[in-house]
Design brief:
alpha+beta, 2 domains, Outer Surface Protein A, domain 3, about 20% helix, three-stranded antiparallel β-sheet, single chain
Amino acid sequence: MKNILKTNIRIPHNLKFFIKGKTLFLEGPQGFYCVSIYDLHSKNLLLPKNRIKLSTFFRSLQKIVSGICLGFVVRLAFVGVGFRVDSIESGFLKLKLGYSHFVYIRLPSFIDVFTAKKTLLILKCNNESLLKDFCSRIRLARLPDVYKGKGILYKDQKIILKEGKKK
């Protein structure tokens, strides 16, 4: 495993990075982010003598920097007959998932949503954890079936199908 304390964090030239008081501010082409230097649970500095907390801080800082400069993208594929994205309008995502009714999901303001085709949904955000949480909420509407392989899957996700009943 690579030692995080001996590596440098590369900060791109288009990123503004400054500390004011106990808060770290980052501003880039994808948005603005502020991080408290203090841990909220234990009121300890995240820059202690403890190497575990220090490496966690640097890893999260690397994620924040890459999110603000490039952004994170997740692609969801709708697999199955009739499973599709019907429309994206007025802050709602309208999905047809094989039920007798449409499924409506409210879109947060910090996530950009695109559809290249009716069976592919592209989500973009500068915060990876918020993006993954929202993707899991969408997937809960129709989880992948391990017997048929239908449902909402990540774009490159492979499902190992189980064998059905035998006579």
